[in-house]
Amino acid sequence: METAVINLHSLFESLRAQVDVLNESIEPQFIQLAVNFEDSRRKWLRVEQELNACKEVLTKAETERGALEVKLKHARNQVDVEIRRRQKVEADCAKLDRQIQLIRELLVSEGSSNSIQLNEEQRSALAFLNARSQNPANLNTSRRTVRLKKRQKRRSSRNHTDGPPAAAKRSRSTGRTSEKGNESLVAKTTVTVPADGGPIEAVTTVEAVPYWTRSRRKTAALEWDTADTDSVRSMDVFKQPSQPNGELKAEPSTPQGNGGVRLHEFVSKTVIKPESCVPCGKRIKFGKISLKCRDCRVVAHPECRERCPLPCIPTMTGTPVKFEEGALANYVSTSSPMIPSLVVHCVNEIEQRGLRETGLYRVSGSDRVVKDLKEKFLRGKTVPLLSKVEDIHAITGLLKDFLRNLKEPLLTFRLNRAFMDAAELSDDDNSIALMYQNISDLPQPNRDTLAFLIIHLQRVAQSKDTKMDATNLARVFGPTIVGHAVPDPDPMTILQDTKRQPKVVERLLGLPVEYWTSMFGPLTTPDQQMSKTPSSSSLSQRMKNATLNAITPKFSSRSRAAVSAPRQGHFFASPLLK
After folding, report:
1. Do 255 and 275 meet the contact criterion of CB atoms below 8 Å apart?
2. In a domain, 83, yes or no
3. Is the pTM of the predicted complex or chain greater than 0.85?
4. Which Gene Ontology molecular-function terms are recorded (predicted)?
5. Does some domain include residue 418?
6. For the purposes of burial, counting CB atoms within 10 Å of the CB of 189, is it exposed (0-12), middle (13-18) or buried (19 or more)?
7. Which of 50, 78, 83, 132 has its Cβ near the most Cβ atoms within 10 Å?
8. How many domains does the chain have?
9. How far apart, in whole angstroms, are the C-alpha atoms of residue 154 and residue 103?
10. Residues 79-119: pLDDT tens digits?
């Protein structure tokens, strides 16, 4: 029994010794643990307070954003309503102005052989026409002498009373053409003046007619006075790359003074030295009458003047000595559209003959022919006849060589990196938005030429016979259009840019054709239904709002019906904005 007690006592002492060892320094450690817990609790509390404050700020910001969105929605609706009102008022005002002007010219023009002789009572009744001020710039008193055929047939459309027409009353029917924006309006005023001094009757009708229909009818109905050397302005439509199936959208031309397409200013002359007609390619023989443009020196038969390529690009004087190293601005005119003549003629010829050529722009032409054509374009006094160049690939090579050897690429050194960065964005909306912004930053010659070229390449890509889709065209024109950010890039830069250049061209080809064609139109209020302002949450829509309206003129788009081409070749329709 004692032995057991002793053993138990020894075990108890051993246990106490071990407990003492464990409790020897544990209190400071527990104190430190408590301090750490307190620090963590305070940090946690501070984070909770900051989180609550941020939640309050977020709630307030969301409330303000909701209120601003409501205001923005109302503002958008008000803007749309005002735009529609303005469009309607502008249309009514333009219609009334044209009618008043036609009646004014017909009735109250003093000293003119075409004016109708009115008595004092009739003149006092029409005195209100003199109250409107007329812009002197729009009054062109010089008129070409023409003899209208079948004039009596047009007059006979109005019913007359029985009896001799000459004894009862005399009527005068006149046709005036008013062209504003992208519209061709034919206003016809029929004025009947009784011989017995009765009241005057005037009826005016205004209708929209596709220009090519009106111009061909007019050409067939008049004879040219060969002794008259007054200048005649060609009223052709703007030639854009046509549909491969041979159809085109006929759009009326726009007077040059209104900011539209530059028209030819023809002067008639008697041919001494035989020349070739640019539209048809036939020779104009000795002693025949020909028309020659004052600005671009295009020569044509009188009956072929409607088919001369547009826009008229004045021949630039003082071209660079080394034309391979010239800047684009040296080859364009000082007024819109700023497109080199070489580009316009090459694109028109390619549109007429090359849209069924397999491998267009991929197959190279003869270097010698390309060099000769370029020398004639940039050095010659007349425009070379591209219709006589048998190899269409030589013409495509001429276009590529001209763009490739410019002193600065079409997209410029300054914006080269911006275009490449925009093309490589994974978000399509943001990429397109930055493309719009970069295009707006281009100089006008570069922007006009780029738009003209992209429209053409889009037509080429649509033609299945060429087997040149947007990807293939991007590979061909990437180095030509985009180029590099420096004049003399090192090999590593060339290697890196070669992979990125096609992406830029492919992105440009993906932009809608309406955006490109809008760069050539006159500046008026659009007649189409206005779309709602895009949401501010999208970068692309913000960029479109800020960029498209800044660089693309707004203008009318009224007549857009496609018609069959009445003449050979493919022609551009006047560019419109949807």
Report:
1. no
2. no
3. no
4. GTPase activator activity; lipid binding; zinc ion binding
5. yes
6. buried
7. 83
8. 1
9. 18
10. 999 999 999 999 999 999 888 888 877 775 554 554 556 66
Tell me if 293 sits within 8 A of 313, measured CB to CB: no
Within 13 Å of residue 505, how many CA atoms lie on the same side as its CB? 28
Q: CATH number of the domain at 535, please.
A: 1.10.555.10
Distance from C-alpha of 306 to C-alpha of 232, rounded to nearest angstrom = 12
> Which of the 8 DSSP states describes residue 282?
-
Q: If 0-12 CB within 10 Å is exposed, 13-18 middle and 19+ buried, where does residue 23 land?
A: exposed
> Which residues are paired to 156 by β-bridges?
none
Report yes or no on 149 lying in a domain: no
Is residue 279 exposed (0-12), middle (13-18) or buried (19+ Cβ within 10 Å)?
Answer: buried
Distance CA 303, CA 145 (A): 17
Nearest 5°: the CA angle 557, 559, 565 is: 125
Interval 343-398: pLDDT, tens: 988 999 999 889 999 999 999 888 999 999 988 888 766 778 888 888 999 999 99
432 domain residue, yes or no? yes
